[in-house]
Predict the structure of Exocyst complex component 8.
Amino acid sequence: MAMAMSDSGATRLRRQLESGGFEARLYVKQLSQQSDGDRDLQEHRQRIQALAEETAQNLKRNVYQNYRQFIETAREISYLESEMYQLSHLLTEQKSSLESIPLTLLPAAAAAAGAAAASGGEEGGGGAGGRDHLRGQAGLFPTPGGASRDSSGPGEEGKQRTLTTLLEKVEGCRHLLETPGQYLVYNGDLVEYEADHMAQLQRVHGFLMNDCLLVATWLPQRRGMYRYNALYPLDGLAVVNVKDNPPMKDMFKLLMFPESRIFQAENAKIKREWLEVLEETKRALSEKRRREQEEAAAPRGPPQVTSKASNPFEDEEDDEPAVPEVEEEKVDLSMEWIQELPEDLDVCIAQRDFEGAVDLLDKLNHYLEDKPSPPPVKELRAKVDERVRQLTEVLVFELSPDRSLRGGPKATRRAVSQLIRLGQCTKACELFLRNRAAAVHTAIRQLRIEGATLLYIHKLCHVFFTSLLETAREFETDFAGTDSGCYSAFVVWARSAMGMFVDAFSKQVFDSKESLSTAAECVKVAKEHCQQLGDIGLDLTFIIHALLVKDIQGALHSYKEIIIEATKHRNSEEMWRRMNLMTPEALGKLKEEMKSCGVRNFEQYTGDDCWVNLSYTVVAFTKQTMGFLEEALKLYFPELHMVLLESLVEIILVAVQHVDYSLRCEQDPEKKAFIRQNASFLYETVLPVVEKRFEEGVGKPAKQLQDLRNASRLIRVNPESTTSVV
């Protein structure tokens, strides 16, 4: 029944918060007026908090579902784009086939024209010759719009002449176009636009070779001359038709991972020619490479050995036994998955399918593991290495601190694991630790300094040590089985991160001059959190000790000086009178305080009613000294042993010197007896308690405290002496 009422109340609250006219200020005002007390407000706050958490979970679930749908949609779009690309290729091939049909009929037409010329006399022959001449010269005229195909014919001399002309017109490209067999296919003027805002950038001229595309910019002061801008190999270039969207029209895009460029042709015809000739040249280059690989993979016949008798002019000096030529083993690269491997890698990188890309690389490496490296294999390796470099750059960017640091260490696992599979273990370790250092630094900076110092230190320790623990566990998961040097790098990183933590810790605890008790509690909290790292085998306690030792020494020294000054001030006003606490409650409170300080026999120093047979100075000194010792022991570690011991001795000496001086200088017998009673309490009760508590906290006795207590015997043996015993 109660649960049903709670569900209905939550539903009513949700509807109220979701209403269009909801006003937070008015709602809080009404709620404050209607509530009976703090408990109602706390319960209502819990209901709103539960509703907020439920809403956050629903939002997270919806975002995850939408993200999955977005990924699936992107994958479907990619498949559709690939199918459209294949369809475009098929249509282009069909168009080429249809255009080549009339060319096959030209020989028959030429024969018929020859027969007509023979029967028609000289006039008919002259007409046919004119038409042949015009057809032969048709390629010499550029197409409209400043774009033209190469018209030098298939001869090597003509191709070289065209390439030489190109080298003369474009500055800075001579060293790039020295590949044997390279020639110009197509060229024309274009206008480049910015990909994001579609703003016009510059006028360029494109030169399409049989294996690459050269882009050159205009030189306004030198008409007809260009300056080299970029060179793109055709096997890594993709051409995309850009749909006309007035006034932006006649455009096409060139994709060269990871960049892209948009160009505009002069008209639709020039644009169509660019798209067609680019596809034809890419297809021709791919076919040429495939034939070369097939020829390289095809087995050769046995080498022919020329007999000595068939060469009667061979010198006698060359009459040596012929060494049979060792035939180099060939590698079959004609399989479809190998042919499409570079393009598949580009698709995987573009779609952020890092696992798929690395799987393809592993498959290729396994296939070529024990095989030789002829030129086709080296060429394939060069293409693949370029994709590996691109994939590595993308993975490095994924781990860069500039990316979002949300998600914790697990968000980096995907990129780290793929870098390790690529053999980049050291780089993966460096980037992972750099990413986590930035995350820890950001988390510390986002902590608000509000409220008590101890509360802030609790938050700081929770944030830092939780991040450190998660990082250590993720590091152990990601780099299990790798080089042990990575673990050394993690230890160095952990020390650096601990330095970052101690800087924030010291700035809030020690630089703000907090009390010794607050500093002790803060250090205790930090030590407890640090010891939790021992669960995973990581002990950083010695590091936090080394980093905090100077600050703790300064805090102990400052508090020691405060106690000494307070003790001297009380000594200057000492009247050697008994304490009168006036009320039994005050006397009972003092007994509890002395008991908590370790003084168990304080009852023997109390008198009738509310009197205490001790001086106020000695009682105050006892409480202050024991309080200092208790707080200092919370801060103790071996490096602070002598600092703490020397501070205690200095504080005790102030009281001992004052009692000794008063005992030697006082002439009144009653006051002298009272001073001797205070000295007995100081030497026989307080000093043994200090010595015992120090030994319990440190683990070993302190010789300096024993010597100080033994020196008090001179006072008890010869109290009338005027010689100082200190």
In short: The mean pLDDT is 78. The chain is about 60% helix and 10% strand. The CA atoms of residues 376 and 716 lie 104 Å apart. The first helix runs from residue 2 to 18.
